[in-house]
Amino acid sequence: MVRLSTPLIAALGLASSGAYAALEVNLDDPASIKKAAAQVAEDLLTFYHGDEPGMVPGILPGPPPDGDYYWWQGGALWGTMIDYRHHTGDKTYDDMITQAMLFQVGPNEDYMPPNWTASMGNDDQAFWALSAMLATELGYTDPPEDQPQWLALAQAVFNEQTHEDRRVASGRCEWGLRWQVYPSNNGYNYINTIANACYFNIGARLARYTDNSTYADLANRTWNLITDLGYISDKWDVYDGAHLPDCTNINKAQFSYNAAMLLQGAAFLYNFTDGSQMWKDRVNNLIDRTLEVFFPDNIAFEPSCENAKCNADMESFKGYTARWLGTVMQLVPDTRAKIYPVLKTSAQAAVKQCTGGDNGRFCGFHWNTGVFDGDVGAGQQMNVLGALISLLSPDVPAPLTNQTGGTSKGDVNAGSDEPLVPTFAPVTGGDKAGAGILTAILIAGALSAFAWMSMD
Questions:
Q1: What are phi and psi of 192, to 5 degrees?
Q2: E-assigned strands of 221-367?
Q3: Phi and psi of 197, rounded to 5°?
Q4: Of the candidates 72, 65, 203, 183, the residue with the CA atom closest to the CA atom of residue 125
Q5: Mean pLDDT, rounded, for 251-277
Q6: Which region among 176-185, 396-405, 439-448 has the lowest average model confidence (pLDDT)?
Q7: Which has more confidence, 5 or 106?
């Protein structure tokens, strides 16, 4: 792949010397949008080094303090690139995408590689599954037959996250999917919206793709859980989550990807149910509130952090939201009149500030100022790329199903059903001393044995 000559200036967030033109695009011309998207994609991949000798395929530099990015953002990157390919027809990066997506599947072919156990969240694993699901739906090139298949990978993650080990056993939060996979991880007792929304989204899409209502039933159950816990307010605000034991002290921070993940999943279920009024109402209510909260003056904005300081995770949410709104327009076509003008205005603001870096077109994070803010990164490039390609969504093919051209092979039994934490027999008083030593040995062994269940 051809890279830009010197990404260092961009990495430092320095303004252009004027030797190159800013990112230029005519948003009324699909060819111009595709050309600009290609430039943003090229600049985005200057932050990726996994295809270089000695580097790890699939991941962005990190996690902190070794780099800005946690493992999940690698999965998000490849989903963005698969969507870019579908919207533009540019297959330049296919080998890179496939290598990255397959390298991180892990020994059990479930996106739980051993290196990431210390921070593995259910949402992290799900973001890789979402990219595999997207590859399935968009007819992305299937892997060789001896490699894991995209649909089976998505099913593996969904099956594992359905397992009782991942969920709250009883009480008001019963069946809630925990944020973190392992009890040793901070956040294990946080029942957050994004983990449950990812599960809901994947279930909705598996239902539609496979025409299997069991997935839809589980997605419905998750929606009901989220609403019963009050994570979606009467005004259709979508909150971040709450802690055990009873999930009552709700963290009311609002991030666009929470709302957009639920909105896209609801659109898939509307389509799957042949136009259910219940799902149509939910889609419309979520659209109205999402545009109101996250697009003030029709420009993408993260209200819970943008006036202060967003971290590298939060700095990538705008792009996912734009892309998923694009999907909503495909699945529920009469939403285009409401969504498209907002996305167009937002994309125009996004492009206007892409004047940074050594080539004069790197993008910052703040879109509502009209000027480059010097805050560059993979998330910022994914944001603008998502904004651009979302404008092409109404005129590109909608996601496939296995009856409309999808070719990816599935496995309804994919994934591991092994418990994450081994269970030991009760210890009698006389055995405590010896058992303490034995337990320590067993736990150490277990941590090694189950280290493949990677982390955030």
A1: -105, 160
A2: 241-243
A3: -70, -40
A4: 72
A5: 98
A6: 439-448
A7: 106
Cβ atoms of residues 309 and 262 within 8 Å: no
Task: Read off the amino acid at residue 397.
Answer: P
Upstream peptide bond of 65 is cis (omega within 30 degrees of 0): yes
Q: Is 44 left (phi over 0), alpha (psi -120 to 50) or beta?
A: alpha
Find out whether 326 and 389 touch, Cβ atoms under 8 Å. yes
Among residues 135, 79, 133, 126, which one has the least CA distance to residue 456? 126
Burial class (CB in 10 A: 0-12, 13-18, 19+), 345: middle
Name residue, tokens 């996979």.
181
State both tokens at 46. Answer: 């200057």
CA distance 263 to 145: 34
In whole angstroms, how far apart are CA 253 and each of 186, 240, 401?
19, 6, 35
Tokens of 107: 């020994």
Q: Which residue has the tokens 């967030």?
A: 13
Q: Please, what is the Cα angle at 332 between 228 and 157, to 5 degrees?
A: 55
Per the listing, tokens 């040995």 go with 441
Residue 389 phi, psi dihedral angles, 5° rounding: -70, -25
Residue 183 structure tokens:
């009890």
Q: What is the 8-class DSSP label of residue 178?
A: P
